[in-house]
Amino acid sequence: MNQLIQRANPRRWQRAVLIVTIGVLAAALHGQGQPPPWTSGIAWPEPKVVDPGPAGGPPSDAVVLFDGKDLSKWHNADGWKIENGYAVCGSNLTTKQAFGDCQLHVEWAAPAEVKGSGQGRGNSGVYLMGQYEIQVLDSHKNKTYFDGQAGAIYKQRPPLVNACRKPGEWQSYDIIFEAPRFNPDGELTRPAYVTILQNGVLIQNHFEIMGETEYRRQPRYKAHAPKLPLTLQYHGHPVRYRNIWIRELGDDHEELTAELRAKLKAGLPAGAATRDGG
To answer: Is the pLDDT of residue 184 over 80?
Structure first.
């Protein structure tokens, strides 16, 4: 076929060969004189494989705290009533296991029948480490002080937006929590941080927690263990909970990243070039 085209129109054939030749030469010369691809030089450990599970979880590495059947992983559950796959508040509920840095998924629903107003309507709370409260409240068309509405870090920061559903409808909190750090003398070396999505909407973005939750005085830190139990607050209202699971967050290898940050800040080369592209 090529010979037929060449005989029929030799000039067009020569032009096509010239274009191809230029393209090949351009490709060959493209990388010459260019710096090699950048690499961090960090020998990262391989991330472990986690099965994300069904929509809403739990992932394969999660601790299931309540699956709709029993509250055997909690203390003080006698006041709670389990029915239809959910549990109704009846006392302060505390996990038997202690947790620090974590990813927590909680689903809750305020009573469908609206009673009261402000803080007197569907009130409960998720206490991380039993110290730091994420407010649970029926905040659908229910005015209260902003740092006390649903999704607030209680008395410290309102949610970025009000993402509440109607009374009686199920809501979800997905919470990423970094526990505070204390040195051996009990001094705070790093505060706690929290990120929260309510019903899939970001309502707290890596907020620096100012201390333990207090109602009648300002927040402050008191040294405590690296891991403490989680608490669900009973505030006298029949708030429902279901599908509660938690993942303990392991080593984030920040020391490796810190080394890289230091090199970049100092203008030093990070590592050798990679052979394959990004």
So the answer is: yes
